[in-house]
Design goal:
Blueprint lengths: L7 H15 L16 H7 L12 E12 L3 E8 L2 E8 H4 L6 H10 L5 E10 L5 E12 L10 E2 L2 E2 L6 H6 L1 H7 L1 H23 L3 E2 L5 E2 L11 E4 L4 E5 L4 H9 L4 E9 L11 E10 L3 H20 L3 E4 L2 E4 L5 E4 H9 L8 H11 L9 H12 L8 E4 L21 E6 L2 E8 L4 H16 L10 H8 L5 E7 H9 L20
Parallel strand pairs: 3-5, 8-12, 16-17
Antiparallel strand pairs: 1-2, 1-4, 2-3, 4-5, 6-7, 9-11, 10-11, 12-13, 13-20, 14-15, 17-18, 18-19, 19-20
């Protein structure tokens, strides 16, 4: 990058880098730095006179976040991966001989906020009672050439945080540095996923991997991303779901499989949608959707406790409880409750007329299932704040689901709605290969009408079903949305380390 595009501060920092080099100081040393403690460990375990001998030779590395200049002595705040700790550096300690350049030139003039340094020294308590490191040696480990956004703090609390979402999402690395609460969200995300894995593993499930690059985008109704395989000279698709591959494994003899799947859907972006997202799907032989509802309740209660210590979360004015059991209501009953219309016996034209009366857009390309989905999404979904199972969907909405054992025209399916959004979708899986072929063919007819979210026919999956798949229940959880709930975030971008952004124009 030429200096023509640099800010004044960036030019100055590059000049400082050149000065360090001229003094024989490598600002990016390759040698191992012998860290033996962290900021949080020191602050949690140092007890003063009681155990000061245990903290007489600590070595900590991190980023300089602020400096208080006191002439021949400075206080500065060092931030490592665990948190922040105050350090005290004094000229006579780090420059015991006559040459004071290490302090007066290097520390005072060439070291900046944002630089990564290593410090060695002993722990003590200041007159104000703050646990601090008295620095006896320091080393520059990485010179920061770009200044950090300024965050003002008082009494350990940030009151001028960087909140611009364009900056935060595009430069997540800087966001993590200057906004201390951001890292905690992603630590909780990992705790959440570990708790889910633990539950499934303890119950005998096997974690597997299935293809991301697929010849047919199956397993969901969504618009795929397309690409091309040069060697085979064939079109390929990024997966929209991993369902059909996991069910192939059930055919093959595995009785409970799961995968945390990175999926891709070429659709819009908003506060609850990102084109690249994470889904957990698992499939269990010899089970049905009733068993799956019971299991889901137990899984989510355990996961909420593992993530936050309690089964409840506060979202705005709503306290949401993941403690089992959850409310259950059928799709048609939910629509009747919130619109006053009983559509259970209506044909497509009748439902289209209901959409008109309710002021809901009803595209001419849409079939009966899509129209019902629009009514529920527009008029019902937002009312379900506490975890609620919406059950027994119309067959037209569910091409991969077994028909209901006692209710004509319905399938054995549920969606879990929490805080007005779908979190999970589950079925008693359709395992009749002949009926599955008919359902796929109906999807093709919808595609011919112009529905670009209709499913392709997966002939290999049909072949797998012809070998026989046992009665099976399967579920997919939106991991990003679940993380939003358990961490109290209102935007999916706040639980994705690197959310999708419009390409940036770089000079």
């Amino acid at each position: 990058m030429s200096t023509h595009h640099l800010s004044e501060q960036e030019v100055i920092r590059r000049e400082k880098l050149a000065q360090l080099s001229g003094m024989g100081i490598d600002a990016y040393p390759a040698a191992l730095y012998p860290v033996n403690a962290s900021a949080s460990f020191i602050k949690e375990n140092y007890k003063g006179e009681e155990n000061k001998a245990d903290f007489a030779n600590v070595c900590v590395a991190g980023r300089i976040m602020s400096v208080r200049d006191m002439g021949k002595a400075n206080f500065f705040v060092l931030q490592d991966g665990s948190g922040k700790i105050q350090c005290y550096i004094k000229q006579d300690d780090i420059c015991p001989a006559d040459d004071k350049s290490l302090y007066q030139t290097v520390w005072k003039k060439l070291v900046d906020i944002g630089d990564i340094v290593g410090v060695k020294g002993y722990v003590f308590t200041t007159k104000t009672g703050e646990t601090s490191i008295h620095v006896k040696e320091f080393s520059i480990l990485s010179k920061a050439l770009r200044p950090l956004p300024i965050v003002k703090e008082k009494d350990g609390e940030a009151f001028d945080e960087v909140t611009d979402p364009e900056f935060r999402y595009r430069q997540r690395y800087a966001d993590l540095i200057v906004n201390p609460g951001v890292k905690e969200v992603f630590i909780k995300r990992t705790k959440m996923m570990n708790a889910i894995r633990s539950f499934l593993n303890e119950h005998g499930a096997l974690e597997v991997d299935t293809p991301v690059l697929q010849s047919i985008p199956g397993g969901a109704a969504a618009r795929p991303f397309t690409t091309h395989h040069n060697a085979l000279d064939v079109p390929m698709y990024m997966r929209i779901a991993n369902e059909l591959y996991l069910k192939r494994l059930i055919v093959g003899g595995f009785e409970w499989v799961y995968e945390f799947s990175r999926n891709f859907r070429n659709e819009g972006m908003d506060r609850t949608h990102n084109p690249e997202f994470t889904v957990l799907e698992f499939y269990t032989a010899y089970k049905d959707y009733e068993w799956m509802m019971d299991t889901t309740e137990l899984l989510l209660e355990k996961t909420a406790i593992a993530t936050n210590g309690v089964a409840t979360v506060q979202l705005g004015n709503n306290e949401i409880s993941f403690k089992a059991p959850y409310k259950r209501i059928s799709m048609y009953d939910a629509i009747r409750e919130h619109t006053g219309f009983d559509i259970s016996q209506m044909d497509e034209d009748g439902i289209r007329d209901v959409c008109k009366q309710l002021g809901i857009h009803a595209d001419g390309k849409w079939g009966k299932g899509k129209l019902i989905d629009e009514i529920f999404g527009s008029k019902c979904e937002a009312h379900y704040i506490q975890p609620t199972f919406i059950t027994d969907y119309p067959v037209e909405m569910s091409p991969l689901t077994k028909k209901h054992r006692s209710k004509a025209g319905l399938v054995e399916r549920f969606e879990l709605i929490v805080n007005g959004k779908e979190i999970a979708n589950a079925y008693s899986e359709l395992n009749d290969p002949l009926e599955q072929r008919e359902r796929f063919e109906e999807q093709v007819r919808l595609m011919e009408r112009g529905d670009d979210e209709a499913m392709f026919i997966d002939h290999d999956f049909l072949r797998a079903l012809e070998y026989g798949m046992p009665p099976t229940s399967g579920i997919g959880f939106g991991i990003d949305r679940l993380c939003m709930l358990l961490t109290g975030q209102v935007s999916i971008q706040d639980v994705l380390l690197f959310p999708m952004m419009r390409p940036e124009k770089m000079d």
